[in-house]
Amino acid sequence: MTRILIAGVAVVDIVMSIDELPRKAEKFRARDAAIVGGGCAANAAAAVARLGGEALLAARVGRDPIGEMIVAGLEAEGVDCARVRRLEEGRSSFSSVYVDATGERQIVNFRDMQLSFDAGWLENDIPGDVDAILADTRWPQGAAVAMQAARRLGVPGIMDAEAPVREAGEALARASHIAFSAQGLRDFTAIDDLDEALEAAERETGAWVGYTNGAKGVSFRNGGEAHRIPAFKVDIVDTLGAGDVWHGAFALALGEGETEMAAIRFANAVAAIKCTRFGGRAGTPGRDEVAEFLRKAA
C-alpha cells in the first residue's frame, strides 16, 4: 500500500445548499445541509484513504468537541491520526459554507491563532518509508518540516499552494512540486495572466509548477515547457473540497510512480466525480469508481 504523509489544516464544515449565495442581511432556508470534515490536508488525506492509499495526517486541533469531531471523522475514513496533535490552548477550526445551485461555494472559516503553529515535534515523527509527502500553506511551519523530510527521503514533496502563499516560503523553496489554485498563483506572483504567472513561478522556484482552474482544467510547466490537461465535463453539484481531493489524488499517483501527466488525469477524474455530489469531501469516490470513470472517458 502506498503511504502518503499529509501535513496541514483539518476543520469541520457546516454546509448549506441554497439557490443563490447570500447578498443581504436576511434569513434564508437551505435545500439540503451536511456537517462534514474539511480542510485542505484533511480532505486530501481522506481522499488518499478512499483511493486505496495509506494516509498519515499531521495536523493541529484543540482539545474541544470540534476537535473530537475532526479526528473521529478522519479515523472513520481510515486515516492514521497518530500525528494529529490535540492542544490544550486554542480552539479547533470550523467553517460555515454555502453552496449555490451551480455548485459554487462561499466559505467563512474560523481559525484560532492561539492554536500553536509549532512543528518541531513533527521533525522526529515522519516515517522513513513514505512514498510522497503533501502539505498545505495553512500550516507553514509544518509544511517546511514536511518538505525538508521529502527532500531527505528522496520522495515527491508536493505543496498545495493556497493564498496567502508566501507565508509558506520556506516550504515552497524545498518542494519538488507546487500545485497552485488559480487564486494562489495570482497571490504568489502578483500577475493576473495565469500562464505568465506560472512561468514566473517556475523561474522563481525551479520546481515543477502547475495550477488547477476548475472546469478549465490544469496547466503546468516542467523544464521550461508548458502543458494543459482539460477537466472532465460533468454536471456540477458541489465544488467544495474538489481542489483538496485533487491534491490528495495527485500525491497518491506520484507516490505510486506515475508521471505528472498521468497523475493529473487521475486527479482530474477524482475531483470531477466529487463535484457531482453534495457534501464536500463526503462525495469523494473510491478507486474502482475512478477506474470505471476513466475507462468510459477513454
Automatic annotation (TrEMBL):
<dbReference type="GO" id="GO:0016301">
    <property type="term" value="F:kinase activity"/>
</dbReference>
<dbReference type="InterPro" id="IPR002173">
    <property type="entry name" value="Carboh/pur_kinase_PfkB_CS"/>
</dbReference>
<dbReference type="InterPro" id="IPR011611">
    <property type="entry name" value="PfkB_dom"/>
</dbReference>
<keyword id="KW-0808">Transferase</keyword>
<comment type="similarity">
    <text>Belongs to the carbohydrate kinase PfkB family.</text>
</comment>
<dbReference type="Pfam" id="PF00294">
    <property type="entry name" value="PfkB"/>
</dbReference>
<dbReference type="GO" id="GO:0006796">
    <property type="term" value="P:phosphate-containing compound metabolic process"/>
</dbReference>
<dbReference type="GO" id="GO:0005829">
    <property type="term" value="C:cytosol"/>
</dbReference>
<feature type="domain" description="Carbohydrate kinase PfkB">
    <location>
        <begin position="7"/>
        <end position="285"/>
    </location>
</feature>
<keyword id="KW-0418">Kinase</keyword>
<dbReference type="InterPro" id="IPR029056">
    <property type="entry name" value="Ribokinase-like"/>
</dbReference>
<protein>
    <submittedName>
        <fullName>Sugar kinase</fullName>
    </submittedName>
</protein>
<dbReference type="InterPro" id="IPR002139">
    <property type="entry name" value="Ribo/fructo_kinase"/>
</dbReference>
